């Protein structure tokens, strides 16, 4: 939504956290079944999962009408 600095998507066993937006966005990917405390980010080891989760997140964000502020 407007002004949000981060957002997340969970799609078992994965959780993606996006910090920022656009080209400056940073991503954290966790296997929350193997690592429920989210202590080890695995984005570098799982590039295909990261790409898939990023796409899922962006599709959901575009469809989230609650996140749109009308002036």
3D structure, described in words:
By secondary structure, the protein is α+β, with helices and mostly antiparallel strands. It has one helix and three strands; from the N terminus they run βββα. The chain has one helix at 47-63; strands spanning 6-11, 14-19, 26-31. A three-stranded antiparallel beta sheet has the order 1-2-3, with helices on one face. Strand 2 and strand 3 form a beta hairpin. It is globular. The mean pLDDT is 87.
Key terms:
71 residues, alpha+beta, 1 helix, 3 strands, 24% helix
| Distance between the ends | 14 Å
- Describe the global form: globular
Tell me how many strands there are: 3
Largest sheet at a glance?
3 strands, antiparallel
Strand share of the residues? 25-35%
If strands are numbered along the chain, what order do they take across the biggest sheet?
1-2-3
Mean pLDDT score: 87
Number of helices: 1
Order of helices and strands: EEEH
Backbone CA Rg: 13 Å
Which segments are poorly predicted (pLDDT under 50) over 5 or more consecutive residues? none
SSE layout and pairing:
Elements lengths: L5 E6 L2 E6 L6 E6 L15 H17 L8
What is the gist of this entry?
With 71 residues, the protein is α+β, with helices and mostly antiparallel strands. The chain has one helix spanning 47-63; strands at 6-11, 14-19, 26-31.
